[in-house]
Specification:
Elements lengths: L6 E5 L6 H14 L7 E5 L5 H8 L5 E4 L16 H6 L4 E4 L2 H6 L4 H13 L3 E6 L3 H5 L3 H16 L8 E4 L13 H16 L3 H6 L1 E5 L4 H8 L6 E4 L6 H10 L1
Helix pairs in contact: 1-2, 1-11, 5-7, 7-8, 10-11
The structure holds phosphoenolpyruvate (PEP).
The site of phosphoenolpyruvate (PEP) has 13 residues, from strand 8.
């Protein structure tokens, strides 16, 4: 078995009322005892964080934000800072999700700044990288993920990656029901780990690289059986407690 503890993180995106989120968290909590290996995390929308953080208190599951500001505080209307997440007890924060990159214009440079802001606040960034369908078809998968990864390494140095998680999320597989095959995912994960290893073998060996993109209970086992896949970042399937738990159990 890999020495890396798998992480299964649910990205709720912009979903959930207070009642739905309470039921979801309570459902996850009830099943946690049957999750033997994986670390379990949920990433709710900001407004649901106080509720979710309270519900999760005392359980084995942790939580994270879906985004953060590059700033620590101040006149930035509508933004949420890393120290605010930390204040509520956040462990993780997603940075560079493809929806942030494509809908909100987040560049590689901004994502790298957010990565630094997360670590400065004592949070573990989950850095998302991945290619679009057009990029895959143009044979640019490796150059795209390398560019996205290198932006962070250039800004913060390879050692900064020690305290982070990577998520390979092919954009064409997110929310589409189209999953990368285990081999397609493994190939990119191995490429990413190899790129890290060329700079620092210790960082490469310890790095948890999650797969994200239409992962569900029925395909999780096969994906996570790949040697370089260390868990999952789960969108749609993380909104149903039993489905999410079954992915956690598969890890
Ligand atoms: C995601 O958005 O991180 C994701 C993987 O979504 P889905 O599981 O719905 O494809």
């Amino acid at each position: 078995m890999s020495k890396r503890r798998p992480l299964v993180a649910g990205n709720w995106k912009m979903n959930g009322s207070q009642a739905e989120s309470t039921a979801l968290v309570n459902g996850i909590k009830q099943g946690l005892a049957s999750v033997n290996t994986a670390e379990v995390a949920v990433c709710p929308p900001f407004i649901l964080i106080p509720l979710v953080a309270t519900l999760l208190k005392g359980s084995n599951a942790v939580w994270g934000g879906q985004n953060l500001s590059v700033h620590k505080s101040g006149a930035y209307t509508g933004e949420t800072a890393g120290p605010m997440l930390k204040d509520y007890g956040s462990t993780y924060v997603i940075v560079g999700h493809s929806e942030r990159r494509s809908y909100y214009g987040e560049t590689d440079k901004l994502v790298a700044e957010k990565f630094g802001a997360a670590q400065a606040a004592g949070l573990i960034p989950i850095l998302c990288i991945g290619e679009t369908l057009a990029e895959r078809e143009a044979n640019q998968t490796e150059s795209v993920v390398a560019r996205q990864l290198d932006a962070v390494i250039q800004m913060h140095g390879i050692a900064a990656l020690k305290n982070s998680v990577l998520a390979y999320e092919p954009v064409w597989a997110i929310g589409t029901g189209k999953t990368a095959t285990p081999q397609q995912a493994q190939d990119v994960h191995a490429f990413i780990r190899g790129r890290l290893a060329a700079l620092d073998k210790g960082v490469a060996d310890g790095m948890r690289i999650l797969y994200g993109g239409s992962m569900k209970a029925s395909n999780a086992k096969e994906l996570m059986a790949q040697p370089d896949i260390d868990g999952g970042l789960i969108g749609g399937a993380s909104l149903v407690a039993e489905e999410f738990l079954n992915i956690c159990r598969a890890a």
